[in-house]
């Protein structure tokens, strides 16, 4: 009788260990969501007035693509505010205009998506992989004007690599 109890105890312990092993190794776990990164850059009224009037936001997606958007805290209704991404920094710009577009004003906060799920870029005719880390290596600043033909800057700020300068 004692032998049967010992044997039953061993079988019970073995069954418990197997159950824990199978439960721990099951593949019904949800896949881990990759950590994504984002960084927001402040746009000010001018190079000498630090009042924040907008921002440029760089975000990384789960698939390693990147988004870049620009937001003005206030815009003028029915006005297209031209904006530029320019190489270099506010203090030492280059002659390279990286992007030129407009932000449609609506009388309130206005946002324009500049890059949406960008995974690659073409440089000198060659397609290159582009990700969050690649974007952070670009020296650039953003400049927003009130409207075309009018030389009045309403927002300016260093972004990406230039923000550290």
UniProtKB/TrEMBL annotation:
Signal recorded as keyword: yes
Sorted UniProt keywords: Signal
Highest taxon of source: Bacteria
Signal peptide: 1-23
Name assigned to this protein: CHRD domain-containing protein
Lineage: Bacteria, Pseudomonadati, Bacteroidota, Chitinophagia, Chitinophagales
């Amino acid at each position: 009788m004692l032998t049967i109890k010992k044997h039953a105890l061993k079988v019970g312990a073995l069954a418990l260990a197997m159950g824990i092993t199978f439960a721990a190794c099951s593949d019904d776990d949800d896949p881990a969501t990759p950590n994504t990164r984002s960084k927001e850059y402040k746009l000010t009224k001018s190079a000498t007035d630090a009042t924040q009037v907008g921002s440029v936001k760089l975000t990384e997606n789960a698939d390693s693509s990147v988004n870049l958007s620009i937001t003005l805290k206030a815009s003028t209704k029915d006005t297209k505010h031209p904006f530029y991404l320019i190489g270099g920094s506010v203090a030492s710009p280059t002659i390279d205009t990286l992007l030129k577009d407009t932000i449609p004003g609506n009388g309130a906060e206005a946002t324009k998506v500049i890059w949406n799920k960008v995974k690659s870029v073409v440089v000198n005719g060659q397609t290159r992989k582009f990700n969050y880390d690649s974007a952070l290596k670009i020296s650039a600043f953003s400049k927003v004007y009130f409207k075309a033909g009018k030389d009045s800057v309403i927002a300016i700020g260093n972004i990406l690599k230039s923000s550290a300068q």
